[in-house]
Amino acid sequence: MLNDGIRFFDLRFAFNPTNSTLVFWHSEALQSETATVPDVLFAFYKWLDDHPTETLLLSFMYESSTTAWAHNNAAVQAQLFAALTSDAAKRYIDQTHNALPTLGAARGKIILLRRFVLDQLNSTYEAALPGLSFPPSAWLDDNRDFSITYNPSHNLSAYIEDYYEPDDVPAGLGAATNIAAKLNATAAHLQKAASGVAPDGLFITFSSAERDADEPAVYPKIMALGNGTDVPGVNQQLVPVIQGLKGKRLGVVVLDFFEMPGTLVPAILGI
């Protein structure tokens, strides 16, 4: 992914099933039994050593729907804090608090996006963390367009589209209608970013979604890539939208199944 141009990673953490180490999950799906949070961070550090002019954005969020006995307790939060404040982390994670660094300062660094709070620890722990604070209480669920002010004193905000399940679309209308709803939300947010509004704002647009509970189900792969016959997915339909915005600010564009079509990532990168 890194060598294909991906620079933003949406990382969901929780304890492993034995409540001993932090690993990565997606809902109830354990991504790996052995790749711990510190392990993956060191892989990012190594890549930055090999690519010192690059910058990565890592979004960390506690995944609450892993197992019935899982809790975001002090032990979880202490392990996360240790991973993000180790000597190695302090070398590679940009230490700016609640502001984006300049591009020059960010080269060879990770910008931390904190979609978590350390509310089971003393307040000094969270205050010691660098990066941008996007607390779960401020992140609106399944929303087409919202903002989070991560630095009130300097009026610095992020503008976000995270419409991950178009369940306001009437049930049973099928893939084409659900894909169109997600595409429209994604395209509208990209066009807002490109318009020049909020010139100091950070724009984050998620192109991924699903409607698993619909009948027929619209799984993430169908949403991204289409049904394989007559309905193209968000990814294919997004290419001309992005190409039409070439040279304008897009912000962060988060993708599912980013490899297809092969023109999508180059269009986002403007190459």
Automatic annotation (TrEMBL):
Example GO BP: lipid metabolic process
Superkingdom of source: Eukaryota
Example of a GO MF term: phosphoric diester hydrolase activity
InterPro entries xref list: PLC-like_Pdiesterase_TIM-brl
Xref: Gene3D superfamilies: Phosphatidylinositol (PI) phosphodiesterase
Protein name (Swiss-Prot/TrEMBL): PLC-like phosphodiesterase
UniProt organism field: Lepidopterella palustris CBS 459.81
Organism classification: Eukaryota, Fungi, Dikarya, Ascomycota, Pezizomycotina
